[in-house]
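This section describes the prediction task in plain terms. A model, or a person checking by hand, is given the sequence of a single protein chain and must write out its three-dimensional structure as a string of tokens. No templates, partner chains or ligands are provided. The sample shown here is typical of the held-out split.
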Amino acid sequence: MNLYEHTIIARQDTSPSEIKQLTEKYSKIVEKNEGEIIKTENWGLLNLSYIIKKNTKGSYIHFKIKGKGNVIDELEKNESIDKKLLRYLTVRVKKFDLEANYFSKKESDYNKESNKN
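The expected answer:
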């Protein structure tokens, strides 16, 4: 079994309920193709480096997937025709980093913001 980190970027006008539906939809595709979702992270609405299809921001969803290559093929086939998505990226990794949460605010960040006010 291979390990993959898979990130999708949804349009900036996608509602939280639609984000949840997208997450469930792609999780079911993984499970249907004998894959396993190890972890799902919703990174929220982030600025894009450049404008994509008239969008300056995007809602990021990140999956850690364990499975065979056909799982990723099926995922990307479905994502390429989904109008709600701007981009997707899959990276094969040797092992998962399940401890680090890169897109959550740290306690020190909150203190800096409160000191500004």
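For orientation: The chain has three helices and four strands.
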